[in-house]
Amino acid sequence: MDNLNLISNFAEFKELKNIDKSTMIGVLEDVFRHLLIKTYETDENFDIIINADKGDLEIWRNRIIVEDGQVENPNQQISISDARKLDETYEVGEEVADEIKLDSFGRRAVLSLRQNLASRILDLEKANLFEKYSERVGEIITGEVYQVWKKEILVLDDEDNELILPKSEQIPSDFFRKGDTIRAIVSKVEMRNNSPVIILSRTAPEFLERLFEQEVPEIFDGLITIKKIVRIPGERAKVAVESYDERIDPVGACVGMKGSRIYSIVKELRNENIDVVNWTANTQLLIQRALNPAKISSITIDEEKKTASVYLKPSEVSLAIGKGGLNIRLASMLTGYDIDVYRDVEEEDVDLQEFSDEIDQWIIDALKGIGCDTAKSVLEISPDDLVRRTDLEEETIREVISILKSEFE
């Protein structure tokens, strides 16, 4: 069992993923020095030479030459007689370097060294993998589906590292088979049982944001900023964007000519509907834009309670709420306000004759004589004008107005 045999068993270490050459050499030297200390109680007078390119290793022991019979520590001293067996020119006081073969340590020690080395390399790989993917959290990665289970999918990256896509992080309509190419973002990296676990996601808002960065050059270049993204994966999403260049229409740039840019994003997200809206610091205007395509009549906002009461024509209410309540739910998520929708129903007018049991007929006739046939037509005229135009008493006019107003309260 020589040096080369040992290193050849670990030949793959020369090209280990995630481990650079200098780190690999440091680990090898550290493991061998541990063996030297265990065997000789010190490693101070030993030189370890590693050739990572060839995959071989040499251990040399340095000892001082002393007179015959004066060797006190055979690990650090050598007699002149033994030294001259190596080279006849040696003299007392000089240093002798002789190579230590691995078989001199014994089979059990070498097997232990192999196990220690394998363990150290594995730990190093785990640490490097954890660090590598911790730096890539929020990035899109492309991998290959290796195994599909009920609760998760095992994905391999281009270096055959194992990544996990849980069912909870998949779009409801996602369907993958072994061998399929898959795109997702790195959601988080955890250590479980001393091993790194890389979790992917296709449902996170950041995944949609990265897709926009890939498809819209203006976003990638920083000319357009994504202010906020909210989504119900596989169903609908709202993306608020803002342009720093007034010449650029942020919504138009994100959608593209005839939807060319957003099409590939929608396809990747399993036909998830995406609404792109112009961001604004004006809360009322933002709520109005968030509820598109519904047309809003008026909005009342309570800043303390973070609520908004939105009034719309009856025909617009279903558009504001959306299928399954998705539109109003996403609008609330985007704006940060709880939105309540109300029908803005105009009050119907009432014919004056309907008040004949409360108002004398001659008074009704006098009002009709000036063109007021309905209650609202009377209320639209000031009391002074009514007195002047009808020649009725002011007290009578005030009583009529009171009766008519009560009808609409």
Automatic annotation (TrEMBL):
Main location: cytoplasm
SMART domains in the record: S1 (SM00316)
SUPFAM superfamilies: Nucleic acid-binding proteins, Prokaryotic type KH domain (KH-domain type II), Transcription factor NusA, N-terminal domain
Keywords: Cytoplasm, Elongation factor, Protein biosynthesis, RNA-binding, Transcription, Transcription antitermination, Transcription regulation, Transcription termination
CDD domains: KH-II_NusA_rpt1 (cd02134), KH-II_NusA_rpt2 (cd22529), S1_NusA (cd04455)
InterPro entries per UniProt: KH_dom-like_a/b, KH_NusA_2nd, KH_sf_prok-type, NA-bd_OB-fold, NusA_N_sf, S1_domain, TF_NusA, TF_NusA_bacterial
Residue ranges of every copy of the S1 motif domain listed in the record: 138-203
Keyword Protein biosynthesis: yes
Localization of this protein: Cytoplasm
Assembly and binders: Monomer. Binds directly to the core enzyme of the DNA-dependent RNA polymerase and to nascent RNA.
Known role: Participates in both transcription termination and antitermination.
Family of this protein: Belongs to the NusA family.
Record's protein name: Transcription termination/antitermination protein NusA
Species whose genome carries this gene: Alistipes inops
